[in-house]
Protein backbone atom coordinates (compact mmCIF):
# COMPACT_ATOMS: atom_id res chain seq x y z
CA UNK A 1 0.00 0.00 0.00
CA UNK A 2 1.40 3.42 -0.93
CA UNK A 3 1.89 6.03 1.76
CA UNK A 4 0.89 9.62 1.09
CA UNK A 5 3.74 11.84 -0.09
CA UNK A 6 4.81 14.68 2.20
CA UNK A 7 3.67 17.29 -0.27
CA UNK A 8 0.08 16.00 -0.01
CA UNK A 9 -0.11 15.92 3.80
CA UNK A 10 -2.14 18.76 5.25
CA UNK A 11 -1.33 20.16 8.72
CA UNK A 12 -4.43 19.96 10.91
CA UNK A 13 -4.83 21.95 14.14
CA UNK A 14 -7.37 20.30 16.45
CA UNK A 15 -9.15 22.10 19.29
CA UNK A 16 -6.70 20.53 21.79
CA UNK A 17 -3.71 21.66 19.79
CA UNK A 18 -5.19 25.14 19.25
CA UNK A 19 -5.52 25.47 23.04
CA UNK A 20 -1.90 24.28 23.49
CA UNK A 21 -0.72 26.81 20.91
CA UNK A 22 -2.69 29.63 22.59
CA UNK A 23 -1.15 28.78 25.99
CA UNK A 24 2.30 28.43 24.41
CA UNK A 25 2.04 31.96 22.96
CA UNK A 26 -0.15 33.46 25.74
CA UNK A 27 -3.70 34.77 25.24
CA UNK A 28 -2.85 38.47 25.30
CA UNK A 29 0.28 38.23 23.10
CA UNK A 30 -1.76 36.16 20.64
CA UNK A 31 -4.54 38.77 20.58
CA UNK A 32 -1.92 41.44 19.87
CA UNK A 33 -0.32 39.31 17.13
CA UNK A 34 -3.68 38.60 15.53
CA UNK A 35 -4.61 42.28 15.61
CA UNK A 36 -1.32 43.05 13.83
CA UNK A 37 -1.99 40.41 11.12
CA UNK A 38 -5.56 41.69 10.65
CA UNK A 39 -4.39 45.31 10.52
CA UNK A 40 -1.78 44.45 7.89
CA UNK A 41 -4.46 42.74 5.75
CA UNK A 42 -6.75 45.81 6.15
CA UNK A 43 -3.81 47.80 4.72
CA UNK A 44 -3.93 45.68 1.53
CA UNK A 45 -7.74 45.38 1.54
CA UNK A 46 -8.16 46.34 -2.11
CA UNK A 47 -6.25 43.37 -3.51
CA UNK A 48 -8.50 40.74 -1.86
CA UNK A 49 -11.39 38.91 -3.54
CA UNK A 50 -14.45 40.07 -1.63
CA UNK A 51 -17.99 38.74 -1.50
CA UNK A 52 -20.71 38.81 1.15
CA UNK A 53 -20.61 35.46 2.94
CA UNK A 54 -22.79 32.67 1.62
CA UNK A 55 -25.49 32.10 4.22
CA UNK A 56 -28.01 29.28 4.60
CA UNK A 57 -30.73 30.37 7.03
CA UNK A 58 -33.16 28.22 8.99
CA UNK A 59 -35.73 29.07 11.65
CA UNK A 60 -33.19 28.35 14.39
CA UNK A 61 -29.91 29.65 13.00
CA UNK A 62 -27.55 30.15 10.12
CA UNK A 63 -24.68 28.23 8.48
CA UNK A 64 -22.21 30.32 6.52
CA UNK A 65 -19.20 30.00 4.23
CA UNK A 66 -16.70 32.87 4.19
CA UNK A 67 -14.18 32.77 1.32
CA UNK A 68 -11.46 35.20 0.22
CA UNK A 69 -8.08 35.26 -1.53
CA UNK A 70 -5.11 37.61 -1.79
CA UNK A 71 -3.97 35.99 -5.05
CA UNK A 72 -1.34 33.83 -3.32
CA UNK A 73 -3.44 32.07 -0.70
CA UNK A 74 -7.13 31.23 -0.59
CA UNK A 75 -9.05 30.74 2.64
CA UNK A 76 -12.53 29.97 3.81
CA UNK A 77 -14.30 29.47 7.11
CA UNK A 78 -17.36 27.37 7.85
CA UNK A 79 -19.28 28.95 10.74
CA UNK A 80 -22.71 28.58 12.30
CA UNK A 81 -24.80 30.90 14.50
CA UNK A 82 -27.51 29.18 16.58
CA UNK A 83 -28.62 31.31 19.56
CA UNK A 84 -30.89 28.50 20.86
CA UNK A 85 -27.93 26.08 21.13
CA UNK A 86 -26.70 27.14 24.59
CA UNK A 87 -30.02 26.02 26.15
CA UNK A 88 -29.23 22.54 24.72
CA UNK A 89 -25.65 22.54 26.03
CA UNK A 90 -24.16 23.43 22.63
CA UNK A 91 -22.15 26.42 21.41
CA UNK A 92 -23.93 29.30 19.62
CA UNK A 93 -20.95 29.64 17.26
CA UNK A 94 -18.63 26.86 16.03
CA UNK A 95 -16.21 27.03 13.12
CA UNK A 96 -13.37 25.45 11.17
CA UNK A 97 -11.34 26.81 8.29
CA UNK A 98 -8.93 26.02 5.49
CA UNK A 99 -6.06 27.84 3.80
CA UNK A 100 -4.87 26.78 0.33
CA UNK A 101 -2.06 27.63 -2.06
CA UNK A 102 -3.51 29.46 -5.07
CA UNK A 103 -0.71 28.19 -7.36
CA UNK A 104 -1.42 24.46 -6.84
CA UNK A 105 -4.88 24.67 -5.30
CA UNK A 106 -3.62 22.33 -2.57
CA UNK A 107 -4.74 23.00 1.02
CA UNK A 108 -1.87 24.03 3.31
CA UNK A 109 -3.78 24.17 6.61
CA UNK A 110 -7.01 22.83 8.10
CA UNK A 111 -7.86 24.12 11.55
CA UNK A 112 -10.52 24.39 14.20
CA UNK A 113 -11.81 27.97 14.26
CA UNK A 114 -14.24 28.13 17.18
CA UNK A 115 -11.48 29.33 19.53
CA UNK A 116 -9.84 31.18 16.67
CA UNK A 117 -13.06 33.04 15.76
CA UNK A 118 -13.43 34.29 19.34
CA UNK A 119 -9.80 35.47 19.25
CA UNK A 120 -10.01 37.10 15.80
CA UNK A 121 -13.32 38.80 16.58
CA UNK A 122 -11.88 40.24 19.76
CA UNK A 123 -8.62 41.24 18.07
CA UNK A 124 -10.58 43.00 15.30
CA UNK A 125 -12.79 44.83 17.84
CA UNK A 126 -9.75 46.08 19.74
CA UNK A 127 -7.80 46.98 16.59
CA UNK A 128 -10.78 49.11 15.50
CA UNK A 129 -11.23 50.61 18.98
CA UNK A 130 -7.54 51.62 18.94
CA UNK A 131 -8.43 54.01 16.08
CA UNK A 132 -11.94 55.05 17.14
CA UNK A 133 -12.33 54.92 20.94
CA UNK A 134 -11.72 58.11 22.95
CA UNK A 135 -8.04 58.50 23.92
CA UNK A 136 -7.34 57.13 27.39
CA UNK A 137 -10.41 54.83 27.44
CA UNK A 138 -10.07 52.70 30.56
CA UNK A 139 -13.59 51.31 31.08
CA UNK A 140 -15.72 49.08 28.87
CA UNK A 141 -19.33 47.98 29.31
CA UNK A 142 -19.62 44.35 28.20
CA UNK A 143 -23.28 43.52 27.51
CA UNK A 144 -23.78 39.82 26.75
CA UNK A 145 -21.38 37.70 28.79
CA UNK A 146 -21.31 34.49 26.74
CA UNK A 147 -18.56 32.69 24.85
CA UNK A 148 -17.05 35.78 23.20
CA UNK A 149 -17.03 38.05 26.26
CA UNK A 150 -13.73 37.19 27.97
CA UNK A 151 -11.90 37.36 24.64
CA UNK A 152 -13.43 40.78 23.91
CA UNK A 153 -12.44 42.00 27.38
CA UNK A 154 -8.85 40.75 27.18
CA UNK A 155 -8.31 42.17 23.69
CA UNK A 156 -9.47 45.61 24.87
CA UNK A 157 -7.00 45.31 27.78
CA UNK A 158 -4.08 44.07 25.67
CA UNK A 159 -4.54 46.47 22.75
CA UNK A 160 -6.36 49.55 24.11
CA UNK A 161 -5.31 49.59 27.77
CA UNK A 162 -8.81 49.05 29.20
CA UNK A 163 -8.65 48.30 32.93
CA UNK A 164 -12.28 47.87 34.07
CA UNK A 165 -15.06 45.76 32.54
CA UNK A 166 -18.66 46.46 33.59
CA UNK A 167 -20.59 43.25 32.93
CA UNK A 168 -24.27 42.81 32.19
CA UNK A 169 -26.16 39.77 30.92
CA UNK A 170 -29.86 38.95 31.24
CA UNK A 171 -28.63 35.71 32.82
CA UNK A 172 -26.59 36.66 35.90
CA UNK A 173 -24.86 33.25 35.85
CA UNK A 174 -23.18 34.29 32.58
CA UNK A 175 -21.81 37.47 34.20
CA UNK A 176 -20.57 35.46 37.20
CA UNK A 177 -18.83 33.00 34.85
CA UNK A 178 -17.20 35.88 32.96
CA UNK A 179 -16.06 37.65 36.15
CA UNK A 180 -14.61 34.39 37.53
CA UNK A 181 -12.76 33.69 34.26
CA UNK A 182 -11.28 37.19 34.22
CA UNK A 183 -10.36 37.17 37.93
CA UNK A 184 -6.66 36.40 37.45
CA UNK A 185 -6.10 38.55 34.35
CA UNK A 186 -5.50 41.91 36.00
CA UNK A 187 -8.84 43.28 34.77
CA UNK A 188 -11.23 44.73 37.33
CA UNK A 189 -14.79 43.47 36.77
CA UNK A 190 -18.07 44.88 38.08
CA UNK A 191 -21.28 42.83 37.70
CA UNK A 192 -24.23 45.13 36.94
CA UNK A 193 -27.95 44.55 37.21
CA UNK A 194 -29.03 46.50 34.10
CA UNK A 195 -27.54 47.69 30.83
CA UNK A 196 -28.00 51.28 32.09
CA UNK A 197 -25.82 50.51 35.09
CA UNK A 198 -23.24 48.71 32.92
CA UNK A 199 -22.62 51.73 30.67
CA UNK A 200 -22.09 54.18 33.57
CA UNK A 201 -18.63 55.75 33.15
CA UNK A 202 -17.72 53.49 30.20
CA UNK A 203 -16.07 55.02 27.14
CA UNK A 204 -16.41 51.78 25.12
CA UNK A 205 -19.79 50.00 24.93
CA UNK A 206 -19.63 46.44 23.61
CA UNK A 207 -22.86 44.63 22.78
CA UNK A 208 -22.36 40.90 22.28
CA UNK A 209 -25.72 39.23 22.88
CA UNK A 210 -27.23 36.33 20.94
CA UNK A 211 -30.91 36.36 20.06
CA UNK A 212 -32.49 35.67 16.70
CA UNK A 213 -34.56 38.86 16.71
CA UNK A 214 -34.36 42.65 16.42
CA UNK A 215 -33.53 43.46 20.04
CA UNK A 216 -32.89 46.83 21.69
CA UNK A 217 -29.90 46.21 23.92
CA UNK A 218 -28.99 49.90 23.80
CA UNK A 219 -31.80 52.45 23.42
CA UNK A 220 -31.17 55.92 22.02
CA UNK A 221 -31.37 57.74 25.38
CA UNK A 222 -28.71 55.45 26.92
CA UNK A 223 -25.90 56.57 24.60
CA UNK A 224 -24.20 59.84 25.46
CA UNK A 225 -21.79 61.90 23.38
CA UNK A 226 -18.21 60.80 22.88
CA UNK A 227 -18.47 57.02 23.34
CA UNK A 228 -17.32 54.24 21.03
CA UNK A 229 -19.81 51.41 20.42
CA UNK A 230 -18.46 48.00 19.48
CA UNK A 231 -21.57 46.20 18.21
CA UNK A 232 -20.79 42.51 17.78
CA UNK A 233 -24.02 40.53 18.19
CA UNK A 234 -26.13 41.95 15.32
CA UNK A 235 -24.72 39.87 12.49
CA UNK A 236 -27.64 38.30 10.64
CA UNK A 237 -30.80 39.47 8.84
CA UNK A 238 -33.46 40.11 11.52
CA UNK A 239 -30.83 40.09 14.33
CA UNK A 240 -29.84 43.55 15.63
CA UNK A 241 -28.99 45.09 19.01
CA UNK A 242 -29.19 48.87 18.66
CA UNK A 243 -32.07 51.35 18.46
CA UNK A 244 -32.23 53.06 15.09
CA UNK A 245 -31.80 56.50 16.69
CA UNK A 246 -28.27 55.55 17.79
CA UNK A 247 -27.30 54.84 14.18
CA UNK A 248 -28.65 58.23 13.14
CA UNK A 249 -26.44 60.00 15.70
CA UNK A 250 -23.28 57.93 15.12
CA UNK A 251 -20.50 57.79 12.59
CA UNK A 252 -20.76 54.19 11.45
CA UNK A 253 -17.68 52.16 10.45
CA UNK A 254 -18.07 48.79 8.73
CA UNK A 255 -16.00 45.98 7.28
CA UNK A 256 -17.52 45.26 3.82
CA UNK A 257 -20.67 47.33 3.09
CA UNK A 258 -22.43 44.79 0.79
CA UNK A 259 -22.31 42.23 3.64
CA UNK A 260 -22.99 44.67 6.49
CA UNK A 261 -26.05 46.13 4.76
CA UNK A 262 -27.54 42.61 4.79
CA UNK A 263 -26.39 41.50 8.25
CA UNK A 264 -25.34 44.43 10.42
CA UNK A 265 -27.10 47.08 12.51
CA UNK A 266 -27.44 49.16 9.33
CA UNK A 267 -29.91 46.63 7.88
CA UNK A 268 -32.38 48.92 9.72
CA UNK A 269 -31.36 51.89 7.59
CA UNK A 270 -31.97 52.85 3.92
CA UNK A 271 -29.62 51.37 1.29
CA UNK A 272 -27.83 54.73 0.84
CA UNK A 273 -27.17 55.28 4.59
CA UNK A 274 -23.63 56.69 4.81
CA UNK A 275 -20.96 54.44 6.31
CA UNK A 276 -17.16 54.43 6.31
CA UNK A 277 -15.24 51.34 5.24
CA UNK A 278 -12.82 50.78 8.10
CA UNK A 279 -9.86 49.82 5.88
CA UNK A 280 -9.84 53.45 4.68
CA UNK A 281 -9.20 54.59 8.24
CA UNK A 282 -6.32 52.10 8.58
CA UNK A 283 -4.75 53.35 5.34
CA UNK A 284 -5.22 57.00 6.36
CA UNK A 285 -7.60 57.84 3.49
CA UNK A 286 -10.43 58.73 5.90
CA UNK A 287 -10.23 60.08 9.43
CA UNK A 288 -11.43 57.93 12.33
CA UNK A 289 -12.48 59.83 15.45
CA UNK A 290 -12.49 63.56 14.77
CA UNK A 291 -14.02 65.04 17.95
CA UNK A 292 -14.54 64.37 21.64
CA UNK A 293 -18.32 64.45 21.27
CA UNK A 294 -18.57 62.16 18.26
CA UNK A 295 -20.23 58.77 18.73
CA UNK A 296 -18.28 56.18 16.75
CA UNK A 297 -19.92 52.84 16.01
CA UNK A 298 -18.18 49.73 14.72
CA UNK A 299 -21.01 47.72 13.16
CA UNK A 300 -19.13 44.42 13.25
CA UNK A 301 -20.46 41.36 11.44
CA UNK A 302 -17.18 39.50 10.94
CA UNK A 303 -15.62 39.45 7.48
CA UNK A 304 -13.70 36.73 5.59
CA UNK A 305 -10.46 38.76 5.46
CA UNK A 306 -10.23 38.65 9.30
CA UNK A 307 -10.45 34.85 9.14
CA UNK A 308 -7.88 34.81 6.35
CA UNK A 309 -5.51 36.81 8.58
CA UNK A 310 -6.13 34.36 11.43
CA UNK A 311 -5.47 31.38 9.15
CA UNK A 312 -2.23 32.99 7.91
CA UNK A 313 -1.18 33.57 11.50
CA UNK A 314 -1.85 29.96 12.54
CA UNK A 315 -0.01 28.63 9.46
CA UNK A 316 3.03 30.75 10.38
CA UNK A 317 2.91 29.85 14.08
CA UNK A 318 2.33 26.06 14.02
CA UNK A 319 5.05 25.41 11.44
CA UNK A 320 7.86 24.51 13.82
CA UNK A 321 5.74 23.31 16.73
CA UNK A 322 4.26 19.92 17.66
CA UNK A 323 0.77 21.48 17.76
CA UNK A 324 -0.59 19.85 14.60
CA UNK A 325 -1.17 16.48 12.95
CA UNK A 326 -0.53 15.75 9.31
CA UNK A 327 -3.76 14.72 7.60
CA UNK A 328 -3.98 12.36 4.65
CA UNK A 329 -6.65 14.55 3.04
CA UNK A 330 -5.61 14.60 -0.63
CA UNK A 331 -5.30 11.70 -3.06
CA UNK A 332 -1.92 12.37 -4.68
CA UNK A 333 -0.82 9.48 -6.96
CA UNK A 334 2.82 9.36 -8.13
CA UNK A 335 1.50 9.57 -11.70
CA UNK A 336 -1.08 12.38 -11.42
CA UNK A 337 -3.22 10.80 -14.18
CA UNK A 338 -3.26 7.37 -12.60
CA UNK A 339 -5.80 7.90 -9.83
CA UNK A 340 -7.52 4.59 -10.64
CA UNK A 341 -4.18 2.73 -10.57
CA UNK A 342 -3.58 4.14 -7.11
CA UNK A 343 -6.95 2.71 -6.04
CA UNK A 344 -6.09 -0.70 -7.52
CA UNK A 345 -2.69 -0.82 -5.83
CA UNK A 346 -4.35 0.03 -2.51
CA UNK A 347 -6.42 -3.19 -2.81
CA UNK A 348 -3.30 -5.23 -3.28
P1 LIG B 1 -23.43 33.12 23.61
O1 LIG B 1 -24.73 32.48 23.29
O2 LIG B 1 -22.34 32.30 24.19
O3 LIG B 1 -23.66 34.38 24.58
C1 LIG B 1 -24.66 35.34 24.37
C2 LIG B 1 -25.06 35.93 25.71
O4 LIG B 1 -26.00 36.98 25.45
C3 LIG B 1 -25.74 34.93 26.65
O5 LIG B 1 -25.07 34.87 27.87
C4 LIG B 1 -27.17 35.50 26.80
O6 LIG B 1 -27.71 35.28 28.08
C5 LIG B 1 -26.93 36.98 26.53
N1 LIG B 1 -28.12 37.71 26.10
C6 LIG B 1 -29.04 37.38 25.16
N2 LIG B 1 -29.99 38.34 25.07
C7 LIG B 1 -29.64 39.31 25.96
C8 LIG B 1 -30.22 40.55 26.32
N3 LIG B 1 -31.34 40.98 25.76
N4 LIG B 1 -29.59 41.30 27.27
C9 LIG B 1 -28.44 40.86 27.87
N5 LIG B 1 -27.86 39.68 27.56
C10 LIG B 1 -28.44 38.91 26.62
O7 LIG B 1 -22.95 33.78 22.22
P2 LIG B 1 -21.47 34.25 21.82
O8 LIG B 1 -20.70 33.14 21.17
O9 LIG B 1 -20.83 35.00 22.95
O10 LIG B 1 -21.84 35.27 20.65
C11 LIG B 1 -22.51 36.49 20.94
C12 LIG B 1 -22.99 37.12 19.66
O11 LIG B 1 -21.88 37.54 18.88
C13 LIG B 1 -23.79 36.17 18.76
O12 LIG B 1 -24.93 36.87 18.30
C14 LIG B 1 -22.85 35.84 17.64
O13 LIG B 1 -23.52 35.54 16.45
C15 LIG B 1 -22.06 37.12 17.54
N6 LIG B 1 -20.73 37.00 16.94
C16 LIG B 1 -20.34 38.00 16.12
C17 LIG B 1 -19.07 37.95 15.57
C18 LIG B 1 -18.60 39.09 14.71
O14 LIG B 1 -17.55 38.98 14.07
N7 LIG B 1 -19.30 40.19 14.69
C19 LIG B 1 -18.22 36.86 15.82
C20 LIG B 1 -18.64 35.88 16.71
C21 LIG B 1 -19.91 35.95 17.26
Describe the protein in words:
By secondary structure, the chain is α/β, with parallel strands linked by helices. It is built from eleven helices and 17 strands. The protein has helices at 15-25, 27-43, 114-132, 149-160, 172-182, 195-198, 244-249, 257-263, 278-282, 304-318, 339-347, and strands at 10-13, 54-57, 62-69, 73-81, 95-101, 107-112, 139-143, 164-168, 188-191, 204-207, 214-218, 228-231, 240-242, 250-254, 276-277, 295-299, 325-327. It has an eight-stranded parallel sheet with strand order 9-8-7-10-12-16-14-15. Strands 2-3-4-5-6-1-17 form a seven-stranded mixed sheet. Helix 2 crosses helix 3 (114-132), helix 2 crosses helix 4 and helix 2 (27-43) packs across helix 10. The site of nicotinamide-adenine-dinucleotide (NAD) has 28 residues, from helix 3 and strand 11.
Mean pLDDT: 96
Q: What pattern of helices and strands is seen along the backbone?
A: EHHEEEEEHEHEHEHEEEEHEHEHEHEH
In CATH, the topology of the largest domain is named Rossmann fold
Strand order of the largest sheet: 9-8-7-10-12-16-14-15
Overall number of structural domains: 2
Classify the secondary structure makeup into a structural class: alpha/beta
Global shape: globular
In this structure, how is the largest beta sheet organized? 8 strands, parallel
CATH class designation of the largest domain: Alpha Beta
How many strand elements? 17
Overall CATH architecture of the largest domain? 3-Layer(aba) Sandwich
The helical percent reads 25-40%
CATH superfamily descriptor of the largest domain:
NAD(P)-binding Rossmann-like Domain
Strand content: 15-25%
> Which spans have pLDDT < 50 for at least 5 consecutive residues?
none
Question: Count of helical segments?
Answer: 11
What binds here, in terms of ligands, is: nicotinamide-adenine-dinucleotide
- First-last Cα distance: 7 Å
Radius of gyration: 21 Å
Amino acid sequence: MSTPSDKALVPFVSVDNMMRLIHHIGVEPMLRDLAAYIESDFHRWELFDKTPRVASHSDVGVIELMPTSDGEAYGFKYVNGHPKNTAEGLQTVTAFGLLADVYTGYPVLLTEMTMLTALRTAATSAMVAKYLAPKGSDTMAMIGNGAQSEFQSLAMKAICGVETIRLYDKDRAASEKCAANLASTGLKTVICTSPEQAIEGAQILTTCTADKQNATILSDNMVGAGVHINAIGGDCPGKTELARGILERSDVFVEFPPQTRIEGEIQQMPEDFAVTEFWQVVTGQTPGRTSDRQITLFDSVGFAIEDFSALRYIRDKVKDTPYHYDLDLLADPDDPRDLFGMLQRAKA
